[in-house]
Design a protein that fits this description.
- With about 425 residues, the protein is of the alpha/beta class.
- The chain has a single domain, classed as 3-Layer(aba) Sandwich (Rossmann fold).
- Helix content is about 45%, strand content about 15%.
- The protein is built from 16 helices and 13 strands.
- The strands form five sheets. The protein has a five-stranded parallel beta sheet, with helices on both faces. Strands 1-2 form a two-stranded antiparallel sheet.
- Helix 15 runs antiparallel to helix 16.
- The relative contact order is 0.11.
């Protein structure tokens, strides 16, 4: 029986050593591993509310809440009394109304957001009222609501425009809020024809319940293990390599990029309904122009480039993604309609590090590594560039304009 005891003791020792090794490996991964971005829906639950017109909007007076972006980068988000991620506004005095989607709304500390930098650079109040997930139609409704509520005409309306705004306009209203979660309200039934199906509320509620059940399962110890996720990813890559060509040699199609850029990656020749979408999209800009004129204000559209356009343009070309075509179409429309437009792509490309890395450094580059939005540095650059444009084109009467323009120019010259 002695050999049996030794065998059992060795087996227990081996098992114990394996458990300790796995535990240590997990600790090492958690200490050194790049942390994935947190789940958006869980982080911002109850921050948004349903809205009869726009589908959803930001809750008023939402308390300060901390969110993690990626790695160790965190920031606080909240809302003021008019439903904007901004400081309180008394309703008195002149202001610029800034609207847009996620780039304009959040995903960076408030003091570093481009709207805040713009306000500081001009020494002129900017109401920072972007809403993540909004398209141009929703931004127009938000502008009407804000102007009506503060009861003071705005001096300038700025739209922070991103290419997927087209999709939000085509599927308007695309999103609602159920049980505190933002949820899809409409979808494309047939991509070839562009036919839209609106979901009933019961379907949306079931989808939200399914999401919550999935999150509960993910909260288990095993599902949260980085070691488990690494092993799972390795097995997935190994399986893929056995079944088909190496992943590095595979190219995606424009269809695979819709989650990043929306419908405008699809060729209009194959999807003729996109022309109808353009007509709707353009009409929303015309409505914005009329609103600005009613206020006696200018309208400025700031075209926001994607991370890929600035740092990885060759990747877009290799996969047949042409974002230059819709950009050109927009600029031609703005010129025809006499709408001021600032395209940030060539400017951001100029300021981006020339030795473009495959892995971005949020501390040095203009975008977060994986999140895709502007980093602190990118927000600062955008705020300075927009301030310069406003000052150069006299879009707002700014005190000591020349001195402020000179200060902005000096900051841009030394921008690193």
């Amino acid at each position: 029986m002695t050999w049996m005891k030794k065998w059992t003791a060795n087996l227990c020792l081996l098992f114990f050593s394996l458990i300790v090794s796995l535990f240590m490996a997990e600790l090492m991964l958690r200490f050194f591993e790049y942390k994935p971005a947190p789940d958006f829906a869980l982080t911002y639950r109850n921050y948004f509310r349903p809205d009869n017109e726009a589908g959803f909007d930001i809750q008023e007076n939402f308390p300060k809440t901390r969110a993690r972006l990626e790695d160790s980068y965190t920031y606080e988000f909240w809302s003021n009394e008019i439903g904007c991620f901004d400081t309180p506004f008394s309703g008195h005095g002149s202001y610029i109304l800034l609207l847009g989607e996620s780039f304009t709304h959040m995903f960076a500390p408030f003091q570093d957001k481009w709207g805040t930098i713009l306000q500081e650079s001009l020494d002129f109040r900017v109401l920072k009222c972007g809403v993540t997930g909004y398209g141009t139609k929703q931004e127009y409704l938000k502008a009407q609501k804000i102007i009506s509520r503060v009861k003071t005409p705005t001096k300038l309306i700025i739209i922070g425009y991103y290419i997927n705004d087209f999709t939000e306009d085509y599927l308007f209203p695309m999103t609602t809020v159920v049980k505190g979660f933002t949820a899809s309200l409409q979808k494309i039934a047939d991509l070839k024809s562009g036919t839209i199906i609106k979901k009933n509320i019961q379907t949306v509620e079931r989808e939200v319940d399914a999401y919550q059940n999935t999150q509960r399962k993910k909260s288990s110890l095993v599902s949260n293990s980085l070691l488990y996720k690494k092993a799972k990813g390795f097995i997935r890559l190994l399986t893929a390599s056995l079944k088909q060509k190496p992943l590095s040699s595979q190219k995606s199609s424009p269809m695979d990029w819709r989650h990043l850029f929306g419908f405008l990656v699809l060729p209009e020749s194959e999807y003729p309904w996109i022309k109808t979408g353009w007509d709707m999209h353009f009409e929303n800009f015309r409505a914005f122009k009329r609103l600005a004129e009613e206020q006696g204000a200018h309208l400025l559209v700031v075209m926001i480039p994607s991370q890929h356009e600035v740092y990885f343009p060759e990747l877009l070309r290799e996969n047949g993604i042409d974002l230059a075509a819709p950009g050109k179409k927009l600029r031609e429309f703005f010129e025809k309609e006499k709408i001021s437009c600032l395209d940030l792509l060539p400017l951001f490309s100029h300021y981006a590090k020339q030795e473009r890395n495959k892995v971005l450094d949020p501390g040095k580059d203009l975008y977060w590594r994986k999140d895709g939005h502007w980093s602190i540095k990118g927000n600062h650059l955008a705020g300075l560039l927009v301030a310069r444009y406003i000052l150069e084109h006299n879009l707002v009467a700014i005190k000591n304009k020349d001195a402020k323009l000179e200060e902005v120019e000096e900051k841009l010259k030394s921008f690193k």
